[in-house]
Write a structure and sequence with these properties.
It contains five helices and nine strands. By secondary structure, it is α/β, with parallel strands linked by helices. The strands form two sheets. A seven-stranded mixed sheet has the order 3-1-2-4-5-6-7. Strands 8-9 form a two-stranded antiparallel ribbon. Bound molecules: iron/sulfur cluster.
Length: 224
């Protein structure tokens, strides 16, 4: 099964509990103003397969506390998402949870999710809305809802549904790869601009994939 992939990283500590293996799908048509992942919007990039993704993640799964799937918009590659979830559920440790982000409202994807009973433990739905507040843990904006879909999801995440962001350390994961720095996590509004400003003060130029303009589509993150 073909899958358009942005990237894979391990360990990611900022998008769910513990040290996680994370998958970013490539392609998102939702275009939320203020999205920090504009580089994942473009379609037709990052062509690979679910099998190749599983092979790359294999060494991580035994030591991961969970798997996070984000994007991009995973539900815009729904068959690839389904197959990936099936493989992950079969391979991941029983104690590993699977958390999926979607920018679609829950009401639009609930029917599909219901057909995947047991494959997703936790789903965070709804688009990023700039100005809606950023007080809740693991959510980019406070309109985003966390759905606990399995007993494992309930047992691990029930206490976090309304937990304030301040309950966890303020952290972003950074990954260095071929002259680029990739970020995982949810920056507060304005924090990327602050980082750019500090870097500029230190004599470095920096560009981010944050923005709300179509002409930013495809800009590679984060600092060059
Ligand atoms: S925030 Fe998520 S759903 Fe919204 S445009 Fe960015 S990648 Fe797409």
């Amino acid at each position: 099964m073909q899958l358009n992939l942005s990237r894979l990283h391990f360990p990611v500590t900022t998008l769910g509990l513990g040290r996680r293996a994370a998958v970013w799908f490539q392609g998102c048509s939702l275009r939320c103003p203020g999205c920090v992942s504009v580089d994942t919007w473009a379609t037709g990039r990052g062509a690979t397969t679910v099998d190749a993704v599983m092979e790359a993640m294999e060494p991580w799964l035994a030591k991961a506390d969970g798997v996070t799937i984000s994007g991009g918009e995973p539900f815009e590659q729904v068959r690839a998402l389904e197959e990936l979830l099936q493989h992950l559920r079969a391979k991941a440790q029983l104690t590993s949870d699977i958390l999926v982000y979607s920018g679609y409202p829950w009401e639009q994807i609930a029917h599909q999710v219901a057909q995947w009973s047991g494959l997703i433990d936790v789903l965070i739905s709804d688009p990023f809305v700039r100005g809606a507040g950023q007080t809740l843990v693991w959510r980019g904006s406070d309109n985003q809802r966390m759905h606990l879909l399995t007993p494992l999801g309930q047992s691990r995440y029930a206490e976090w549904i309304k937990a304030p962001k301040a309950a966890l350390p303020k952290v972003l994961d950074l990954f260095f790869h071929e002259g680029e720095v990739w970020m995982a996590g949810i920056p507060s509004e304005g924090s990327l601009e602050a980082i750019q400003s500090h870097l500029a003060d230190a004599g470095f130029s920096a560009a981010t994939s944050q923005g709300d303009c179509a002409d930013r589509n495809g800009v590679l993150p984060i600092f060059t």
